[in-house]
Amino acid sequence: SLYHKAAIESGAYSYWTAQPMQEAEQQYDDLLASTGCRIFGKLSCLLSLNAKRLLRISWFGLPPRRKPYGCPFAPTVDGVELQRLPWELRDEGRFNTQVPVLLGYNKDEGTLGIDLQPSLPGCKLYEKVSNMTAGDFARLLTGFQFWVDPARLPDVLDVYSVNSTDDYTNWYWVATHFAGDYAFSCPSRRTARALSKFSSSAVFLYYFAHTPRAKPFPFAGVRGRPDTAGASHASELEFVFMMTDPADPLAQHLIGDDEMLLSKTMAGYWINFARASNPNPLGGARDSTYTDLTIDWEPFKGGHEASIRLDLPRLSAMVGRDNRQCDLIDKLGVVSASLARAVPMTPVRIPQPAAVGRSLERETPLLV
């Protein structure tokens, strides 16, 4: 076996983690058009370009096309190295079922990317922050970003509305939680369910909820408003890896004894999982990885969907978190700009390119 344990953080088998061949081919055509290499000597022309220019174009220079799958760095289903979209294989149990898995997501994953493309209409709505309205959220849902069928708005607003949970304090946080649930939280739940169904090894699910005191992760929240980032995408990394050097440009360093303690606790869980396939202290003993915050981290199982909340001032055990939100998102119908018709979240059969010569089932995304 190539590996004996796996940790999957922030976006397990989400729609943006892979793309079919036709998406990659369109991205390549867009790249050629943006560089002027489309007419003669395409490959030699691209090879002659400055690497920094290519990198800049790959993120910001391509046409504002709505990509229903993948992202600029997502692997491609080419029919050779990757023959199916990963979540299809997951749902069929076609993966290494002998490997224990630790996976999870952060409370405010949906704040990622708001500042990445500030000219987009949806980003302008987010920039209103506490002045966002229910109408703004409805505009995001039915266009700009999520493409929800307008007839389903009441279903969404029944679950996602101000004060329907403690985290939904205004429409900005409602919208970012919807985005994070679709792109990160709910794919993690689907993955944990599939792994626990097919695998003979343990599955451990986490929920990181602490908002770091240091500067937010790049591209999280509204520019100049660190209070809009929350426990954003990748913010758990500084705790897992105990990033304590304020001079490190890649580290959103820890501040305060309690953050250091949370970091030591989380690092202990990850270390234990790496060496013994279980994040809990070995044999239940209070070894060097045990801290005053340590609690028992139960495995995720069918019928008992346990997870751990990583937060201050204390950690807590949870069962069935986000079920109402993810039940909605897993069933929700959306309007796909690429298909130009209403489709449900259940797999839709779409022809694969002739080079691969087979059909491809794929989930239809809400989020761009």
Give a brief rundown of this model.
This protein has 2 domains: 6-18 and 79-362, 3-Layer(aba) Sandwich (Rossmann fold), CATH 3.40.50; 20-68, no CATH class. The chain is α/β, with parallel strands linked by helices. The chain has 11 helices and 11 strands.
Strand and helix map with partners:
Blueprint (H helix, E strand, L loop, with lengths): L5 E4 L9 E2 H15 L6 H7 L2 H11 L14 E2 L8 H6 L9 E6 L14 H6 L7 H9 L10 H7 L11 H28 L4 E6 L28 H4 L16 H20 L29 E5 L5 E4 L3 H9 L2 E3 L4 E3 L4 E4 L7 E4 L6
Parallel strand pairs: 1-4, 2-3, 4-5, 5-6
Antiparallel strand pairs: 6-7, 8-9, 10-11
Describe the structure.
This protein is an alpha/beta fold. The protein folds into two domains: 6-18 and 79-362, Alpha/Beta hydrolase fold, catalytic domain (Rossmann fold), CATH 3.40.50; 20-68, no CATH class. The protein is 33% helix and 12% strand. It has eleven helices and eleven strands. The chain has a five-stranded mixed beta sheet with strand order 1-4-5-6-7, with helices on both faces. The protein has a two-stranded parallel sheet with strand order 2-3. Helix 6 packs across helix 8 (171-198) and helix 8 (171-198) crosses helix 11 (323-331). The protein starts with 5 loop residues before the first strand and ends in a 6-residue tail after the last strand. Mean pLDDT is 82; it is low at 333-368. This is Carboxylesterase type B domain-containing protein. Belongs to the type-B carboxylesterase/lipase family. Residues 2-325 form the Carboxylesterase type B domain.
